Amino acid sequence: MSILSSHGDVHIPDYLIHALGLKPGVELALERQGDAIVMRPVKTNKSSRVEEGPKILAYTGMTVSLEEMDDAIAKGAVQSL
């Protein structure tokens, strides 16, 4: 059991921290559900560079350059005529 401090702090038991894989500094979202408070770790992608898109999406297939994509689009456009 945890106790709310006078500053609004709550200690999360170690077994829950380990079970959820929480690390220091993780952002937690809290929401009210009836008379309960639900706390969830916020999943964020720290990277937002286009080049890292496949990694962000956990894509493991082949990658191509923007030039290769442009060439394929142009070729497809010609073939569709």
Q: Report the average pLDDT across residues.
A: 85
SSE series: HEEHH
Give the number of domains. 2
Radius of gyration, CA atoms, in whole angstroms: 23 Å
First and last CA, distance: 70 Å
- What would the principal axes of the Cα set say about the shape? elongated
Number of strands: 2
Seen as an oligomer or otherwise, the chain set is single chain
Biggest sheet strand order reads: 1-2
Number of helices: 3
Helix content: 25-40%
Query: DSSP strand (E) fraction?
Result: 5-15%
**What structural class do helix, strand and pairing data support?**
alpha+beta
Structural features, described:
This protein has two domains: 1-44, Ribbon (Pemi-like Protein 1, Chain: D); 50-79, no CATH class. The chain has a two-stranded antiparallel ribbon with strand order 1-2. The protein is 31% helix and 15% strand. The longest helix has 14 residues, at 66-79. It has 81 residues and is α+β, with helices and mostly antiparallel strands. The protein is built from three helices and two strands; from the N terminus they run αββαα. The model has no long low-confidence stretch (mean pLDDT 85). The protein has helices at 14-20, 53-56, 66-79; strands at residues 28-33, 36-41.
